[in-house]
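During the no-cost extension, the postdoctoral fellow (Dr. R.K.) reprocessed legacy sequence entries with the updated structure-token encoder. One reprocessed record is reproduced below for audit purposes.
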Amino acid sequence: MDDDYGNSQSTFSNVFPGPEPAELIMPRLASEAVVAARLAGQQTVIIRVRLNSRTVQIQSDWRAVDSRNPGIVYAMTGAPVDREQKRKWLEIPAAMGIAA
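Re-encoded structure tokens follow.
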């Protein structure tokens, strides 16, 4: 969809409707980034999900919406990782307060 300024916009689709798959959202230390000569606060988190055929499709350019509070949106900041290498969990780095 065109935004009348030459940019294209699209909407996000809900890939995982319902209460799954997030098992745990672990806050990390907050960080600040210089954006346009201003400091912008960012809350980084690790989103932990069960590894299954649906969650292995998660891409780093997706976003996550908290099902308990739809006003909280996380932008994925990296690719999902099986850190324990036991094929049980995926950990996805994400951040609140940045463009999703």
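The mean pLDDT is 78. The chain has one domain: 22-96. The remaining legacy entries will be reprocessed before the final report is submitted.
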